[in-house]
Structure formats: structure tokens, C-alpha cells
Amino acid sequence: MILVSLVIGGAAQARLNEAEVRASYLFNLTKFIKWPDETTIAGSLSICVLGENPFGELLEQGTAGKKMEGRDIAVRTYKNADSDGWQSCNLLYIATSESQQVARILAGVSEQTVTISDIPEFAYDGGMIGFVGIGTKVRMMINEDVLKSSGLKVSAQVMKLMIVLEG
């Protein structure tokens, strides 16, 4: 059932706007990721947005009162790359407003942070996961080299649904 929500296409996706689809991906993706040492996630699981927030209140509304493996989910937003705190997020969505700062952001983020963005060529440029539009569907492209070097594990079920960029 959870997996179905990751594969949103055609008519179902048409009922949701783009921001809702992407917000759903962000939250649901955390269910299929294993960090190498669960103790690296102290207290809550942080889903962060860096730059102009395209989701509005969708992430907060979608995660309110929910837990991930017993941890509270904290949604945080950061105005830009000059803000403090985003460097240690568990999942960091980098908004297109930060496209000129991608190299700097990727260099400053923890290796065990899932980085995800709509920025064109994001996965090619060293980000972990890039949203790509294919026809009427939103897909995810994953940079397998970045994933391997992070020590993170993504469910094989989800990997089958992603476009895998191999080095």
C-alpha cells in the first residue's frame, strides 16, 4: 500500500498538483531508506526544505502526528544556503531557487543526508535523487554512486521504480 503511493501516475496524479505529488514522495521515501547506523538519527527524523518552499504547508500537514520507526518527524525550512542547520538534515530537498548553490550545498551536507531536488541534472551533478518529469508522470532518478558512498540503503522495491544513474 505504501509502495503504491510512491508510484503516482496518469489519472491519479492528475488529481494531485505537482507540489502534492512531490511532498508525498518526500515523506514516503523515508519509509524505504535505511541509514547505516540508526543512532545517527538523534531524536526525530528531519525532512528539510532549503530555499523557496514549493510545498507551502503540505509537508507539515502530511507529517503532523506521524512517526517513522518510532521517531517524530520534524519538518524544517531554511531560507537559503547561508542559513544554519540544513547541513545535518536526514532528508534535504533543495529548491530550484538554490540551483546556483548546488555544488556548495552538496559539499556542506552530511554524507548520510538524502539530497533530493527538481533542479535539472541534479542527480548527474552529484545529488542523490532528482525528480524528473516523463510525460504526465513524476519519476525519481537516483545517482547510484552517491547512494553507495553514503552508506544508505534504499529498498529494492523502490529502486526498481527509479531511474538508476550508474557511474
Outline:
The chain is α/β, with parallel strands linked by helices and 167 residues long. It has 7 helices and 10 strands. The strands form 2 sheets. The protein has an 8-stranded mixed beta sheet with strand order 3-4-2-5-6-7-8-10.
Tell me what you see in this structure.
This protein has a single domain (2-165), classed as Rossmann fold (3-Layer(aba) Sandwich). Helix content is 29%, strand content 26%. The protein contains 7 helices and 10 strands. The strands form 2 sheets. The chain has an 8-stranded mixed β-sheet. A two-stranded antiparallel ribbon has the order 1-9. Strand 5, helix 5 (102-108) and strand 6 form a beta-alpha-beta unit. It is globular. The model is unreliable at 1-15 (pLDDT under 50).
Q: Going across the major beta sheet, what is the strand order? A: 3-4-2-5-6-7-8-10
Largest sheet: 8 strands, mixed
Query: What share of residues are in beta strands?
Result: 25-35%
What class would the helix/strand composition place it in?
alpha/beta
Q: What CATH architecture do you see?
A: 3-Layer(aba) Sandwich
Radius of gyration: 15 Å
Mean pLDDT over all positions: 85
Categorize the overall geometry.
globular
Order of helices and strands: HHHEEHEEEHEEEHEHE
Total domains, how many?
Answer: 1
Distance between the termini: 32 Å
